[in-house]
Amino acid sequence: xxxxxxxxxxxxxxxxxxxxxxxxxxxxxxxxxxxxxxxxxxxxxxxxxxxxxxxxxxxxxxxxxxxxxxxxxxxxxxxxxxxxxxxxxxxxxxxxxxxxxxxxxxxxxxxxxxxxxxxxxxxxxxxxxxxxxxxxxxxxxxxxxxxxxxxxxxxxxxxxxxxxxxxxxxxxxxxx
Amino acid sequence: xxxxxxxxxxxxxxxxxxxxxxxxxxxxxxxxxxxxxxxxxxxxxxxxxxxxxxxxxxxxxxxxxxxxxxxxxxxxxxxxxxxxxxxxxxxxxxxxxxxxxxxxxxxxxxxxxxxxxxxxxxxxxxxxxxxxxxxxxxxxxxxxxxxxxxxxxxxxxxxxxxxxxxxxxxxxxxxx
Amino acid sequence: xxxxxxxxxxxxxxxxxxxxxxxxxxxxxxxxxxxxxxxxxxxxxxxxxxxxxxxxxxxxxxxxxxxxxxxxxxxxxxxxxxxxxxxxxxxxxxxxxxxxxxxxxxxxxxxxxxxxxxxxxxxxxxxxxxxxxxxxxxxxxxxxxxxxxxxxxxxxxxxxxxxxxxxxxxxxxxxx
Amino acid sequence: xxxxxxxxxxxxxxxxxxxxxxxxxxxxxxxxxxxxxxxxxxxxxxxxxxxxxxxxxxxxxxxxxxxxxxxxxxxxxxxxxxxxxxxxxxxxxxxxxxxxxxxxxxxxxxxxxxxxxxxxxxxxxxxxxxxxxxxxxxxxxxxxxxxxxxxxxxxxxxxxxxxxxxxxxxxxxxxx
Amino acid sequence: xxxxxxxxxxxxxxxxxxxxxxxxxxxxxxxxxxxxxxxxxxxxxxxxxxxxxxxxxxxxxxxxxxxxxxxxxxxxxxxxxxxxxxxxxxxxxxxxxxxxxxxxxxxxxxxxxxxxxxxxxxxxxxxxxxxxxxxxxxxxxxxxxxxxxxxxxxxxxxxxxxxxxxxxxxxxxxxx
Amino acid sequence: xxxxxxxxxxxxxxxxxxxxxxxxxxxxxxxxxxxxxxxxxxxxxxxxxxxxxxxxxxxxxxxxxxxxxxxxxxxxxxxxxxxxxxxxxxxxxxxxxxxxxxxxxxxxxxxxxxxxxxxxxxxxxxxxxxxxxxxxxxxxxxxxxxxxxxxxxxxxxxxxxxxxxxxxxxxxxxxx
Lengths: 176, 176, 176, 176, 176, 176
Known about the structure:
Chains A, B, C, D, E, F: Residues 18-166 form the Cupin type-1 domain. 6 copies of one chain form a homohexamer. Chain A is of the alpha+beta class.
């Protein structure tokens, strides 16, 4: 890979994906769903350094604070309205309300989020400069990993009690 | 740049662009218009390695064969139907008909095109893994550069007469 | 930068830093202190793609869950004992107890932490493959950014009440 | 590859190629021949990021407009005289007449060409910053790909009739 | 590699190494020993772009002039005192005496060395921005390669007699 | 740089160099002369990642063992015959005799040399995958740096006496 040809034969469908065409259901805890279109879905992307995803939001839906360890993200709003933001390494929140057709950027590796504070549904197309950007949803990463991150770490980091840690773990589907 | 901070102060609008929201007129020779959203329009993209563009097509509209010297491209069809293709370095055309919501990839540096063979208008969002992908529309690059590429080069390359070269130059707005 | 020489003249001290030699006080909320040795402290590192840091821990001290958006980290334990871990993009916690002289790796961009569960103090030297790795301490990034991340985002992400969000914000020094 | 050793054993000949020593015949349609010396011919080049080629020109011979999707090119004229040029993304032709011993550069991904307008033969050595630069000869890419690029695309792009498209296809060895 | 996942399963020990904890014997010709901690010892480092090493010095011990063809190096002195230096491409020696806790940088690919001119032992931890930095100890590279570099090359390069070349080869364990 | 345009205006001569056309005199100590054609001579090369050089050899002339800290090198023999070699990080000498028209590769950062053991003059064109490859001629780097590398380092590294070190320093133009 990278140094030489990757695949002996290929077809146009190796560069194609139809799975972002339709809105996905958003009747889950966060009110949002992310549908990826990366090298897992599009094998021809290997070594090409790009990928996409679709994000659907119900009213009030949140794509919770997360990072992509290997990519910058840029989004285009398909419909609806989103409050978006990222936090810099100087701990400054950079945020805006964006609407249909607007473009916004989330620099490489920084924590960011999008929330639909509008009345109707919303959707966005995200693009990444990696064929495999990866994602870490912060709350689930900390409170629902397997095996679990210890209560002592989380209690101290967030300055909350062990009981409060365990309640968050329970709600996010993690184990103590 | 790249090694260190780029700008002493910034605001959210440095990462934002509203210019892709609306369809652009397509009543031109090719029946298509490309609206860029790169580091020229979004200063915060500098060193971040991504950008976007919107491509609008009238019925029959063509985004003519072109290359991006510094980027892979991935597109998402906003509406309508497009015949898309790229040509490999082994001179194989990789092409498909794609429709609303479909995603397709054009590998780094390869000649590619999109044409709207449908009955209504069409539009797509393109993303690139460079903040400044660059573009060379092949026909205009060869037949409408300033100063002009010589007739002898173009005549021999395309195996056409000097008169035919000059006719193409004239139609594409180039000088002899 | 990157393309050409960076500085017209330089001295050996541009490549040197004495500030990691001594333990730093750890009598703060988390019981740990990070002392950086990157391009801010060592100007000669510019474009060279490495840096270091020293991390001191009191007994029970925590270097809380954080990411480096631009670097992989590798640490060497100077003395004491540390429980260390990172979480993968598949939400798997990879953790170990390491002691004096041990080496451990935290892959690029992933959330990781170190905690001193031993009885005495501990210290480690960290190295990064960037002259400016950046850092985001997750709890402070989310609960103490300026301007603040909204309660609605944090309440929904962690499935806690607005009151609980505000208590964490207050303890971590953030504003509502 | 790239991350680790590529080959268990090797010999000096893996880093060697004798195939550029002699002029190649140029009695073809374009009056020029390109002989590559890349990772296909020199396996030791894998991951090393360089390669070479020899270009021979008869009198009037043309290395037609083409791109290298993955490399910048720099040439050294072995003998004879060449008119060389590349077109920028601002559609400016940058061209010169160069002679024996001269060096000229063709920036990454841009359309460029060389033509021998001198009376005798000419030859040049080209070097690339990729072990596998790839090449797309524009006219053949568009008019002789398999399967063929449709007449409608080419007719509209070059503003010529379907009949003219088919004549070029026929002369360049492509199918309708 | 690089483009995609490297290993189907892994354990924490793939990211761990205990082999730098103890001083290594330095009773050899140079009075120093380098213990690597790179991708050979830590498989999880693959594609992550960092590694470490421990360098132990007896009194008077020398880590002789050498290069790392693929990495910048940064060191932290564990104990003792070292005279360190690198030579720039402008043939300027950049050197300092550094002691316990000090940090110093050796830019990518440049010849550098460390010598313990103190009275007791010394040790340092080195970090590299490559999982496989490679090393060429200059004297051994030139005078103890297999097959040997010819006497004519070495005699002329160092302006010494063939007999002197052979004496160095003999002392460094090389063959004539 | 790298992120954006480098120069507001340019001319074809920014991409051109005539200084490699003629053989340079080789009546010096080593019997060889290197003439560079990098970003110092060709400003348009900035950020483009390639450069060239010409190497002229008298009979018996030596381009002494050296490294390029930032580039792989590939050479083409213009005339004459050369014995060429590089040493791997496993201390294996990879060497060959090459003649007019032959191509040989010297991997990134490794020590390498060329010597003209033929009866007449020889010359080669070298290409690099950096616009500024840098060079360190090993003997001069060690024995003729300013300020000088100490006798104790060189004596121990090469296992020669201080007197022998000083003799080499003297012959290579260095100071004690």
